Amino acid sequence: MNTTQLIRGLLEGCIIAIVSFEDSYGYQVVEKLRETDFENISESTVYPILKRLEKKRIFDSYRKESKLGPPRKYYKITSDGKKELKEFLMVWNSVKSKVDLITKEVK
Amino acid sequence: MNNIPWLLVVILILGAVATTFEVLIYIRKSKKVLFLENEFRATYLNIETSLTNSYLSRIEIREVMLDLSELLYEAQNEKRPITDVIGSNVNDFTKAILQSHGHKKKLLYILITGAQTTIFTLFVVQFATFSMRNTRPLFETTIGLPLIPYIIVLSFIILPLIKYLVSNKKRVVSAIASSLLIISFVLLTEFLISQKENSLLIQKYVDTEILLINSQFTASAVILALISLYLLKKHLQRSAIKNIK
Questions:
Q1: Which of residues 42-71 of B touch A (CB under 8 A)?
Q2: B198-215 as b/e, with b when 16 or more CB fall inside 10 Å?
Q3: pTM of the entire structure?
Q4: CA distance, residue A11 to nearest chain B CA (Å)
Q5: Interface pTM (ipTM) of the complex?
Q6: Fewest C-beta in 10 Å: which of A52, A53, A100, B73?
């Protein structure tokens, strides 16, 4: 399977997880993903996902003045978002344990 | 032949007003993002123009553009290339934004907007003719039939082209190109009319006037059509948002 496809599928769940830790703005989310080895991730990938999650009411948002430049938009997880994150983690853990089991035997 | 100066004046005024309006909007938009440097600002304005021609409502566009100004500003400060933010293709980035809003039917949107502009302009022309000629009552005022195809061309081709040109990076070149577009449109119109002796189609157009709005009933129908188009546009925007996967 193509690595990019696999990563994109997981990216939405990871972004929800990042915002669930603390309210975050777009660039901050990109930086956190980069810090955790999602090296090729840029705003062009993350921004449409943030927008979609906001439209689906997974996130709320508010603007905060920035010292320089335009005000920053912070995303905040909603109760629907928390449910979505739980579901994502359940599915991910279930898939991960199955994959681990198989790959362990392969090793 | 009495129609010719009147027709040219109307087209010239419409073209000049549209161009001035677009240039003023562009300058006003540019001033809002002075904190962005050349390439970043040009990309910002380019995306804004693309979104203006989409299904997005004004509020949605304002929201997206505010988000984008923030992302571009952060990248500019970090001295990162613009491709880091929007990827290698601006159109793909715009498409991704539209998809995240559930918008897909761009052509339909352009057609609705063109129809709105055509109906509204014809409506205004009849009122303008009534005010200027001042010889017949409002509901008996006729307008030249040639105006209709020309206004359609203006609404569906010239105005969208001017919008596109004004959003171009090279502003002076764009302003000149927009003006040339309008002038060539006017000259072509004049040429076609001057050739009317040799053209049955033009002859028919020039010598015929029509009563566009002949009663309160047709006036109401025109207003109703405008309202319906507006509501259709709103409905498309709302249903697009519902369709987000």
A1: 64, 66-71
A2: eeeebeebbeeeeebbee
A3: 0.58
A4: 15
A5: 0.74
A6: A100
